């Protein structure tokens, strides 16, 4: 079982991700913005991975900013990015080394496979 920090500003999508990742046997922590993500990252709880939406409305650099700060705080953290927009090369150039991507809308099977690859 891994602990996954989910950062998503759309409540319905955040709930679906939480349920799906939970059904895979992982524990989840939820955040809808940078401040709440940092609260989790500042805590004592071990976090294995960050599942972050690239396009967070409240941040100019969206999920990239959160991922960069998160990995700065916890260098071993693995990052899975997501977005409803197609993946372009300029997007992947901003990924943390080893970061991966899953396109919204994703199926349970796609999220399961992405999580498996990310965590192993």
Give the terminus-to-terminus CA distance.
12 Å
Instruction: Compute the number of strand runs.
Output: 5
Helix-strand makeup class: alpha/beta
Number of helices: 5
Order of helices and strands: EHEHEHEHEH
Query: In which range does the helix fraction lie?
Result: 40-55%
**Main sheet attributes: strand count, strand direction, barrel closure:** 5 strands, parallel
Multimeric state: single chain
- The rounded Rg comes to 13 Å
Major sheet: arrangement of strands: 2-1-3-4-5
Task: Assess the beta-strand content as a share of residues.
Answer: 15-25%
**General form:** globular
| Average pLDDT over all residues | 91
Low-confidence stretches: none
How are the SSEs placed, and which strands pair?
Layout (H helix, E strand, L loop, with lengths): L2 E5 L3 H13 L3 E5 L2 H9 L6 E5 L8 H12 L4 E6 L5 H4 L7 E4 L4 H12 L1
Parallel strand pairs: 1-2, 1-3, 3-4, 4-5
Helix pairs in contact: 2-3
């Amino acid at each position: 079982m891994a602990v996954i920090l989910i950062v998503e500003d759309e409540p319905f999508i955040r709930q679906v991700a939480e349920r799906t990742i939970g059904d895979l046997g992982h524990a989840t922590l939820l955040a809808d913005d940078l401040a709440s993500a940092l609260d989790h990252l500042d805590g004592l709880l071990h976090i294995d991975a960050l599942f972050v939406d690239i396009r967070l409305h409240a941040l100019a650099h969206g999920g990239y900013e959160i991922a960069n700060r998160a990995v700065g705080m916890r260098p071993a953290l693995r990052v899975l990015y997501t977005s409803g927009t197609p993946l372009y090369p300029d997007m992947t150039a901003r990924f943390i080394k080893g970061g991966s991507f899953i396109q919204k809308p994703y199926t349970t099977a796609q999220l399961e496979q992405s999580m498996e690859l990310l965590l192993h």
